[in-house]
Amino acid sequence: MMAKKTINIPLGSQHISLLEPVKFKFECENEKIIAVDSDVGFVHRGIEKACTTKFKYDAVGYVVARICGLCAITHSLTYTTAVENLLEGELTLKVKYLRMLVAELDRIHSHMLCLSHTAENAGFEAMFMQIMGDREYVMDLQRLLTGNRVQFDYISIGGVNRDLSSEVAKQIKINLQIIKEKVHEYIDEFTNNWSLSLKYKDIGTLSLDEAYTYNAIGPLARASGIATDIRATSDYLPYDKIGFQIQTATKGDIHSRNMVRLNEILNSIAMCENIVDGLPDGEIQTKFKGKPKGESIVRLEAPRGELMYYLKGDGKAMLNRVRIKTPTFACIPAFSEVFTGSNYADAPAILASFDPCLSCTAK
Amino acid sequence: MINRITTQLSTVKNDIEKFYDKKVWHFLTLNGVKLDESTTEIQWIFSKYNNDDITMFYTNVKQDEIIPSITDILPSAIMSQREIVDMFGIEVEDSEKGLYLDEDSEQMPLSSCGI
After folding, report:
1. Of A24, A93, A336, B10, which is most buried, counting CB atoms within 10 Å of its CB?
2. Would you say residue B6 has pLDDT above 60?
3. A212 and B33 in contact by Cβ < 8 A?
4. All domains in chain A, ordered by first residue
5. Which CATH number fits domain B2-92: 3.30.365.10, 3.30.460.80, 3.30.499.10, 3.40.50.300?
6. What tens digit of pLDDT does each residue of A318-361 get?
7. Nearest CA distance, A330 vs chain B (angstrom)
8. Helix (H, G, I), strand (E, B), or coil: what is residue A141?
9. How confident is the model at residue A181 (pLDDT cuts 50, 70, 90)?
10. Domain extents for chain B?
């Protein structure tokens, strides 16, 4: 019988499995992780402070978009919705539809990035490259629609900055059809590939009770069986009109998280197609009057889960407080719980399956 | 719609324990809003899993007071408790400094009386 030996192994702050500044310190007993310590504070940028001292409220939407290159749209959309709550004005239905369109395109490419990294960290380099290559179809659509691949600056107070032309609408439908076919191939591969199943199935499990206890959100929670998604409950965007369907699983392992994301991509594609087919007529900008006064909390569903903005203003151009709660930051204790009891060799694939965003966390 | 509930440092843990049902509510964040040089409004914000309801417990805290920890009720609160310690320089029970700043840093970036 092998003697028990306890060793400490760090993962990060720079690690081949996650090129972002986070450090997990694992205490391992032979192969098994028995305790975890995390450190996320390597590159804090002071954006909350900058939003109340350096930028007026109408510029903050463009500042917070720089928090993250992957969910820039959701950051600017959540902030803009929160500040619109404190002003006088009303959005057109067309603006709401266009905002949902970019939010869902953002979700598709973000989920594809996560799936590719999860494949890479399970040792399936070819799958990583295939998904990253296919992801370009979405990046192209974002560029055509907003003018940029990554930092879009598409959302503005009272509207959006570009209309959807008929040529771009046609291209959206073509590219989404291609991605849809690819996603069905991924589902087959992720479900039936024997070597991947060894790396994903029953690995890195977060039970339903643990998900509640550690306040899991986003795909992490939905893969464990909690039917929570802001798109299902929020009044700010009419997701009920475009075919939103919540995606859940029950086992809470890496495979379940992969399946939730894959099914969400398919649902996002369907919603984008419905938006393009049923885009209402109307203006893409309306005037919002006044200066932000009062308190506003808005939550929207980012690709990694619930994103919250708290704003407080007193009728001046500078806000008193901007508080940002990002999904990864909130889920760090849940991550530690999943790591504990897992094999160290599985840690990179487990970490990738969380889809952590340290850019958001170190806001 | 935010349901604001006033609380006190001496009772907040008890108030949250009575209110919190982990299958109904989830903890959004611990937030601080500077009111004047020496006072910060501390907010414990919760949202419902299945609708848009938000409940906020809040109280005013002086710079030298100690905020009780709620991590034995809500383990995930540790992250935002440590954030408050770093950003506002207010002590929170069982929450060490050094999430973002150095452990011996004297800075408190979101406190207007900070360095």
Report:
1. A24
2. yes
3. no
4. 47-361 (1.10.645.10)
5. 3.30.460.80
6. 999 999 999 888 888 888 889 999 999 888 888 888 888 777 77
7. 7
8. helix
9. very high
10. 2-92
Residue A333 has its nearest CB partner, among B75, B100, B109, at B75
> What is the 3-state composition of chain A as percent helix, strand, coil, each rounded to the nearest 5?
50, 15, 35
Output DSSP code: residue A360. Answer: H
Please determine, for residue A194, whether its predicted confidence score (pLDDT) is greater than 80. Answer: yes
Which chain B positions have a beta carbon within 8 Å of A212's beta carbon?
A: 22-23
Please write the tens of the pLDDT for every residue from A262-303: 999 999 999 999 999 999 999 999 999 999 999 999 999 999
Query: Taking a C-beta distance cutoff of 8 angstroms, is the pair A286, B43 a contact?
Result: no
Contact B76 A214 (CB under 8 A): yes
Regarding beta strands B91-92 and B66-67, do their DSSP bridges make them parallel or antiparallel, or are they unpaired?
parallel
CB contact under 8 A, A325 and B33: no
pLDDT 10s digits, B39-85:
999 999 999 988 889 999 999 999 999 999 999 999 999 999 999 99
Distance CA B79, CA A331 (A): 9
Nearest to A233 among B51, B79, B100 (CB): B51
- Pairwise CB contact (< 8 Å): A48 & B110: yes
Closest CB to B29: pick one of A44, A232, A325: A325
Q: How many CB atoms lie within 10 A of CB A198?
A: 12
First to last CA, chain A: 48
Which of A40, A41, A228 is the closest to B49 by Cβ? A228
Nearest CA in chain B to A48: B110
Strand partners, A35: A27
Q: What is the largest CA-CA distance in chain B?
A: 42
